[in-house]
Amino acid sequence: MLKQRWFMRSLSTILPRAPLSKQILKSEPTAELLEKLCFFKKTQSGIFHMLPAGMKTTDKFIGIIQDKLQTNNDASLVSLSSLSPKSLWQTTDRWANSELFKLKDSKKNEYCLVATCEEDITELMKSFITSYKDMPALVYQVGKKYRDELRPRSGLLRAREFIMMDAYSFASDESDATRMFEDVNKTFLEIFQELKIPVVRAYADSGDIGGDQSIEYHLPLIGGESTILSCNNDSCKHVATDEKALSYPVEEGQFTGDVCVKYGLSEDHTTLVCYYYPKGRQINWNLAKLSVDDDIDSSLRDCSNQEITDLFQKENEDMMFTKVLRVMDSRINSRSNFPDFPLKSYLKNNFGQIDGVSIVTATDGEICGQCNEGTLVSTKSIEVAHTFNLDTKYSKPLSLKFMDRENNSTRLVKMGCYGIGVTRVIASIAELTRDIHGLRWPVAIAPWSVSIVSTPQGKNSETDKNYGKIVSLFKNKDPKLASNIMTNLNRTASMGTNISLSHSIGIPLTIIVGNKSWPRVEIEVRGRRWSGTDICKWEEEYPHLKEEYQWEVNNASPIDPYHEKHIVLHKHVVDVVKLLLQDL
Amino acid sequence: MLKQRWFMRSLSTILPRAPLSKQILKSEPTAELLEKLCFFKKTQSGIFHMLPAGMKTTDKFIGIIQDKLQTNNDASLVSLSSLSPKSLWQTTDRWANSELFKLKDSKKNEYCLVATCEEDITELMKSFITSYKDMPALVYQVGKKYRDELRPRSGLLRAREFIMMDAYSFASDESDATRMFEDVNKTFLEIFQELKIPVVRAYADSGDIGGDQSIEYHLPLIGGESTILSCNNDSCKHVATDEKALSYPVEEGQFTGDVCVKYGLSEDHTTLVCYYYPKGRQINWNLAKLSVDDDIDSSLRDCSNQEITDLFQKENEDMMFTKVLRVMDSRINSRSNFPDFPLKSYLKNNFGQIDGVSIVTATDGEICGQCNEGTLVSTKSIEVAHTFNLDTKYSKPLSLKFMDRENNSTRLVKMGCYGIGVTRVIASIAELTRDIHGLRWPVAIAPWSVSIVSTPQGKNSETDKNYGKIVSLFKNKDPKLASNIMTNLNRTASMGTNISLSHSIGIPLTIIVGNKSWPRVEIEVRGRRWSGTDICKWEEEYPHLKEEYQWEVNNASPIDPYHEKHIVLHKHVVDVVKLLLQDL
């Protein structure tokens, strides 16, 4: 008896019991919608409990990641401690990071809660990598990460505790390192393709993590925090983040307004670098750095112009031995309105100038700096994954070395690191796919693939029997699919309530067992057909279904999504469901 | 090419490459052995990274737990945040616990890293349980827990970061609560039976967690930290922890030596309770409490006798209105040597006395207090799981209430909580099953079920081909089993090295593909036959194997474990392996 009640209740205890109002479905921010639909529950700013529906979605995504990494890249699964000792982070000079959660144990040892694990994995692999024979190797883990964001926002998009997949590669030379970097990036693309979402790869800045080569994965999204720039030239198609994208104006030297300047010092502090660019544009540090062949002291990046010139004059007593390098953004010309030069005394002969470079953040409509032909198109997006070719950035300070094949000397291991923001991907997909009826998951990560709804239990014994018949059909014909079916949304509520609930939770297909339509049942398509395959194809491929089969498509209004219904004899329901799921 | 090298290497990168010495296998503590065999890696005192072999073992165990809880108890999986706010723990009066890891975020909010989640789950379920209709419900999670033990020891047996499965039940009345408690306990027993390990259930004290009813699961183990007492009377068989077990002496009142006394005060502090018991025995607070019907102030439990009598005299100005209650352990008699009575002035008339009770920790050979017939047998053990019938211990302070069915009033939810120390179970099984050849896992949680070893790759092309043939046989006949086979221990090392490696890692079966024995292969049984089934049975059940089949058992020496070998035609290898695995 108790068992019976459990079957009826336990899952639906942590699911909505009644449909949300149209107003909430339409205008509630996605983070709140996910909470109202019982996927996650916020406990503190940026901190969440994961509820059963959210767990199912997350576990499915993690399953896809693991499967791909193991099959394609033979990756080894580990799970590093969440408590990382201060000493490791001091060695790589990252302990000062104010976003680390820090704590002391009862013996006053200091730790941080892991934000990323480059330090820990490098230290760990010292026990396992000693010879070139031990490489290449790829190690990964999936687990909670912590970042004490000052302004956590948008729910799981920018949380303080979140789930991340982080992988680390180890190679003995650059060509192996690059091949592993490319292989893992290939797998990342396959992972996102499995979700049938339009993820874009962009060349990116490697930021705080380090390394020379870096690729970000972006989900295009109106209102996204990031901007990516794509070249519309089909033979180029270069995509980069706005931190990395190089662009040129449609016509050079056309800017005649006020010019801004940003000062910097060369690495030896004997050259004052003056970056001139149009007012109203944003200087791009990566491009600025590139324009002087990286000969710039990046630690002074955030200093004011006054601080830079003071430092320059203080460190160089004799101005005779200094230089001034003027870097001119290609948008400006000599007739532009330049600011005053800051130094009182200087030697004209020591002036140098670089012209025709681009040092400002690219904008929509400018010329692609990669092919010099196409036009850049700017798109708002969310970053969902990031890969880094780290070279020896961590193996050097932490001394991860191996015995060489050729000359029996020790060399530093070449590393790469690769991250997928698991909960972030889920939150972005929710954001991307939601519509006025609620969420709309791809089958690959939907908490349930199918729901079966009917009239309230106990109201019509014939319908109850038919409902049981459909459930049994799935259990007998495809037990794995059957375990992905939601059969107990709210069996005491009306059919309409349950259809709305199923739609709002975002279950891709709803099977409706009604008393009038029997022996036919309706299958409502809620999921989105990303591939654009037309259902007619199924009828052609499976002619035995055609006779007894009917489908309808309504496009009720411009804001109402595509409505698709399949009416099939109950004995075909499993086959049709399986066909439909392939494309959702 | 790279792929090929990965297949060869990546797994074995984080596995031992050479067998450990006999000395290490024999005498290294199990915690160090698990580390040397690359299951876990200690990073700090009580803190560990989990390596691929340890991950596989852990994941298999978690899979069994999830499967059983979902199938038997329809439990819902959640994952609560690891950061629990101070305010919750203050409400239940548990924040002072010195074993909590505590931290502050950048806004000075305080958190602990979760040690258990009664507070968080109770708070969470307030959003979901409002009516009797929402219950019964069972919610569980599996994840990292934190306890800042002052003296972490024995590796994963007493770690500061560890993996735990914690489940929580919610019921509207006592009978449902008790039924859920019993149902989950039944599932726990099934989980341990699946591992084929001899786990014992013992009635236990509920300690800091609280509640009236509590059952612990113990793995009997020489050198274990706990002691359980089992009644040898077949119609009783009562088992309890030494904190809970009630025992009587074989003959009462036979103790004539020095008597110890422990003082306490009744809850209203007007009665001085004097517990008298034999010197050399340990007073058992649970029994002492029970002997006075719980009318004792437990908060004074750790006060000295002097402190108790001082407090008694200070709080009671007129001794006329006080009482003295003498509780006599049944082992002592009036001729025993009693200590002096502590009070100067007292009234003889106000003395009471309780005789014939047992208030000391039970010992081996005493009479079972449950049946009053059997003899208690004491066993050293490790506690691996604990269940609590909590009643309203947490729902009361945190106000988890529901609307009653009968009279539309609100009532407190009856809770239960249930924990399995996942990493602790794994460490205890390693401790229990290890022998002079290394670890010896039950199939259910072995990192790999089978290993296939042969001569070094490239040495004999015929053997290499046969090796490939055996691997393919498994892949074709049973892909799931094939994914549980270790095929790349160290393919450049000798066959003997790999057999030793496989034995020490504790893989239950080793298939040896040699050049002499072909077309037969040898299957070495490393796993332990807990059920004692004789292999002959298989031959009877599967006569088609009998003709071409041969088996040997050697028991080399008293300390050397049972050696069992099966020599079979290669075409039968999958069948025989599957039969053998059933019993390991």
UniProtKB/TrEMBL annotation, chains A, B:
One Gene Ontology cellular component: mitochondrion
**E.C. code:** 6.1.1.15
Spell out the molecular function terms from Gene Ontology. Answer: ATP binding; proline-tRNA ligase activity
Q: Which key words are in the record?
A: Aminoacyl-tRNA synthetase, ATP-binding, Ligase, Nucleotide-binding, Protein biosynthesis
- What catalytic activity does the UniProt entry give for this protein? tRNA(Pro) + L-proline + ATP = L-prolyl-tRNA(Pro) + AMP + diphosphate
Aminoacyl-transfer RNA synthetases class-II family profile domain location, by residue? 133-442
Give the superkingdom in one word. Answer: Eukaryota
Q: InterPro entries, from UniProt?
A: aa-tRNA-synt_IIb (IPR002314), aa-tRNA-synth_II (IPR006195), aa-tRNA-synth_II/BPL/LPL (IPR045864), Anticodon-bd_dom_sf (IPR036621), Pro-tRNA-ligase_IIa (IPR002316), Pro-tRNA-synth_IIa_bac-type (IPR004500), Pro-tRNA_synthetase (IPR050062)
The protein's enzyme class: ligase
Instruction: Look up the record and give one Gene Ontology term from the biological process aspect.
Output: prolyl-tRNA aminoacylation
The record's family statement is: Belongs to the class-II aminoacyl-tRNA synthetase family.
Its name, as the record gives it, is proline--tRNA ligase
Query: Whose protein is this, by species?
Result: Maudiozyma barnettii
